[in-house]
């Protein structure tokens, strides 16, 4: 099945292009919350992703915890996309982005400016402020945002490399709550639209990709599954399936049945 | 505080380290590999090429960060 879909995908689809860089997989995967690093590496390998997100945190000077994630992730195998998760102010996010650039030798940043601890929804004013500073500082900003067209347009205006509207709140697993708004954003933007956060299971990923977006980013749905490697495989297939379904053009919806078999030639 | 140590704030905690260390020596004192961390000294990033020239002063605030798993 995997071989067949890969062949179909390559013949029907084009690569995902972000800031001039091309990727075959449209699935981006986070590296947080895995029970151990070995499971994390196996899961992201199974997902087929080419981009993985990482966070910036203090080194544990007492060595009670694991070493940095670069001991486990080969940067030649996966493109590392640092985030500014946990930042509630534009200035904090800018500080984290600069530290990330130094740590990862990359000017790509998944920019999060969070507005509220309970919902982890974005602070769009802070997001726009941080975006403008980081873009003028040469960063390729992939902006985590609400599923709001106006914010998405402002982010594009500000020079982001991609807009990343949420499917539902981070870690909620509620799936795609506002497909209409996601389609609206996709229909109006030139830069890639990558749905980030909220996916719970494979059907959510498939439904999201069926909206025509350029990619999808998830972490908890894989990391918190009972079998993360199995779920990563499911997400890989679902992302491809949703993309192919979108490219293939779904049949129109009808209120009433239409027979699939001939209505003629029936026996008396 | 003895004469041959200085007090700094390291990753949010006050800490005594030997006096007169530069950044490279501080990392080595802490047993950290240079390539594995980013150094922020009083809110300014210290680039790797500056590790020998930048000395740790009493009262400095230092953050040592790296990549961890995240979404």
TrEMBL record, chain A:
Binding residue positions for 1-deoxy-D-xylulose 5-phosphate: 171, 197-198, 219-220
Thiazole synthase ThiG domain residues: 17-262
Chief subcellular location: cytoplasm
Key words, A-Z: Cytoplasm, Schiff base, Thiamine biosynthesis, Transferase
GO function terms (MF aspect): thiazole synthase activity
Complexes and interactors: Homotetramer. Forms heterodimers with either ThiH or ThiS.
Pathway field: Cofactor biosynthesis; thiamine diphosphate biosynthesis
Annotated protein name in UniProt: Thiazole synthase
Broad enzyme group: transferase
HAMAP family, sorted: ThiG
Catalytic activity: [ThiS sulfur-carrier protein]-C-terminal-Gly-aminoethanethioate + 2-iminoacetate + 1-deoxy-D-xylulose 5-phosphate = [ThiS sulfur-carrier protein]-C-terminal Gly-Gly + 2-[(2R,5Z)-2-carboxy-4-methylthiazol-5(2H)-ylidene]ethyl phosphate + 2 H2O + H(+)
Domain of life: Bacteria
Family: Belongs to the ThiG family.
InterPro entries cross-referenced by the UniProt entry: Aldolase_TIM, Thiazole_synthase_ThiG, ThiG
A Gene Ontology term for the protein's cellular component: cytoplasm
Catalytic residues of the enzyme: 110
Its job: Catalyzes the rearrangement of 1-deoxy-D-xylulose 5-phosphate (DXP) to produce the thiazole phosphate moiety of thiamine. Sulfur is provided by the thiocarboxylate moiety of the carrier protein ThiS. In vitro, sulfur can be provided by H(2)S.
TrEMBL record, chain B:
Coiled-coil regions listed in the entry: none
Xref: Gene3D superfamilies: 3.10.20.30
Entry superkingdom: Bacteria
Pfam family, one: ThiS
Cross-referenced PANTHER family: SULFUR CARRIER PROTEIN THIS (PTHR34472)
Identification of the protein by name: Sulfur carrier protein ThiS
Species, as recorded: Candidatus Kutchimonas denitrificans
């Amino acid at each position: 099945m995997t071989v067949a879909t890969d062949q179909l995908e390559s013949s029907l689809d084009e690569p995902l292009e972000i800031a001039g860089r091309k990727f075959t997989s449209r699935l981006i995967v986070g590296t947080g919350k895995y029970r151990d690093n070995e499971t994390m590496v196996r899961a992201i390998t199974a997902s087929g992703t080419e981009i993985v997100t990482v966070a910036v945190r203090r080194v544990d000077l007492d060595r009670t915890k694991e070493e940095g994630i670069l001991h486990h992730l080969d940067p030649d195998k996966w493109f590392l996309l640092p985030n500014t998760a946990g930042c509630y102010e534009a200035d904090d996010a800018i500080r984290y982005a600069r530290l990330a650039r130094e740590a990862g030798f990359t000017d790509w940043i998944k920019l999060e400016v969070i507005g509220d601890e309970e919902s982890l929804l974005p602070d769009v004013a802070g997001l726009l402020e941080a975006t403008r500073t980081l873009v003028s500082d040469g960063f390729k900003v992939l902006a985590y945002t609400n599923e709001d067209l106006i914010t998405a347009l402002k982010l594009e205006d500000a020079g982001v490399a991609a807009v990343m509207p949420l499917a539902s709140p981070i870690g909620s697993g509620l799936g795609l709550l506002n497909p209409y708004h996601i389609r609206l954003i996709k229909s109006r933007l030139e830069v890639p639209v990558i749905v980030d956060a909220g996916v719970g299971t494979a059907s959510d990923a498939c439904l999201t990709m069926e909206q025509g977006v350029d990619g999808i980013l998830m972490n908890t749905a894989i990391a918190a599954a009972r079998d993360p490697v199995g779920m990563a495989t499911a997400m890989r297939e679902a992302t491809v399936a949703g993309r192919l379904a979108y490219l293939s053009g779904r049949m129109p919806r009808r209120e009433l049945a239409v027979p699939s078999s001939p209505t003629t030639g029936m026996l008396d | 505080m003895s004469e041959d140590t200085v007090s700094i704030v390291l990753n949010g905690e006050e800490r005594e380290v030997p006096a007169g260390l530069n950044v490279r020596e501080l990392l080595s004192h802490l047993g950290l590999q240079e390539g594995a961390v980013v150094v922020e000294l009083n809110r300014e990033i210290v680039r790797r090429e500056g590790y020998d020239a930048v000395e740790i002063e009493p009262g400095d605030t230092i953050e040592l960060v790296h990549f961890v798993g995240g979404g």
